[in-house]
Amino acid sequence: MTAELFDVRSDGAVVLRVHVQPGAGRTAVRGRYGDALKVSVAAPPQGGRANQAVADLLASVLGVKPAAIALVGGETNRAKRFEVKGLEADDAADRLQRAIDDAERRPGDRDRF
């Protein structure tokens, strides 16, 4: 279940927990990392480039405009929180589950724990 990856605020915004691996070979959803979505981004963690790459990836995965995504916690940390406006919790759960399922189907492309 992907619902534990995010919280829903009283205003309806979804706040997604994300664990980021910056400076990776490619930008992609990797799966889960505890109660967070694990993503890798090719952008380096300098000047906010990795944060912007994560926001762009999340917008693509969740099917929202980039302006609907905002970093609300963890600016300089691998553990981040992104606010997503204009997306129902059920839709967020479905789209995140699809992205995680796709990541798990890519053989040899996931980090090993």
Describe the structure.
This protein has helices at residues 49-62, 89-105; strands at residues 6-8, 14-21, 28-33, 36-40, 69-73, 79-84. The protein is of the alpha+beta class. It has a single domain, classed as YggU-like (Conserved Hypothetical Protein Mth637, Chain: A), CATH 3.30.1200.10. Strands 1, 2, 3, 4, 5 and 6 form a 6-stranded mixed β-sheet that branches. The longest helix is centred in the last third of the chain and has 17 residues, at 89-105. The radius of gyration is 13 Å and the shape is globular.
Mind sketching the topology for me?
Layout: E1 6-8, E2 14-21, E3 28-33, E4 36-40, H1 49-62, E5 69-73, E6 79-84, H2 89-105
Parallel strand pairs: 2-4
Antiparallel strand pairs: 1-2, 2-6, 3-4, 5-6
Describe the largest sheet. Answer: 6 strands, mixed
Number of domains: 1
Distance between the termini: 20 Å
The parts where pLDDT drops under 50 for at least 5 residues are: none
Helix content: 25-40%
What is the overall silhouette? globular
**CATH homologous superfamily label:** YggU-like
Question: Quick check: average pLDDT?
Answer: 92
Rg, Å, rounded: 13 Å
Query: In CATH, what is the class?
Result: Alpha Beta
Q: What structural class is derived from the secondary structure elements? A: alpha+beta
**Named CATH architecture:** 2-Layer Sandwich
Could you tell me the CATH topology label: Conserved Hypothetical Protein Mth637, Chain: A
Helical stretch count?
A: 2
